[in-house]
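Lab notebook: predicted structure, single chain.

Context: the supervisor wants predicted structures on file for every construct in the current expression panel, including those that have not yet been purified. This is the next one on the list. No modifications to the sequence; it matches the entry in the shared construct table.
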Amino acid sequence: MNRLFLLTIGLSFSSLVAEAQLVKGTKLLGGNLGYTRSTSTQTLNNPSIPVTKREYEQVNRTFNVSPRAGVFIADNLAAGISVGYNSQKITSPLYDYSYTGNPVTYQQTARNNSFNIAPFLRYYYMPTATFGVFGQLNATYSTGKSKAETTAPNQLDNEGKINGFGLGISPALVFFPVEKLGLELAFGGIGYGRTTSKSEATRNQPESKSMYSDFGANFGLNQLSVGASYYMGR
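Prediction complete. Output recorded below exactly as produced.
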């Protein structure tokens, strides 16, 4: 009787482990939707500006959407590609002395809109059939346009082009309310990015080029991204 009991438990455990696998050949179709908002305090090192106005708040808002498709090339390991659209808006005050000699406050806004393509690899760990975690490695290439504008009457708007490349690793949770539908919640990641921009010449400024790169880890509630995938063949 004891042997039969132990055998039954062993078979049940094996069945549970097998059920929790995402097997080779399974296909996934899905996407992510994300919105982040962050604020930072900047300081101007200009003695002609009153001390009370040297610190100002900069607001950064980002929205992105990225559909994707992939296939499991081994149990729990998926490879695929995603395409996406990203929109960023940064607002901050602008002080102008042109008319009165005293600073008049206007608003300046920078907008970046880009499209990207990103191959990815995912590895899943599924402790149960309905809940798991995965880590995603992706490489991203993006291209788009930028525009800087202000409400100041004597300032010209500026437009340009942007191109970028990035590598990132991000963890996420996945929950299956039904067998083939996985709901995903990501909360940041670790990554490296490099962006080059080229501003068009204007009446007052020549054409300019710049390059910016960064590496860091960003985790938290302000980095939340939700997504869903349909798993065909699960």
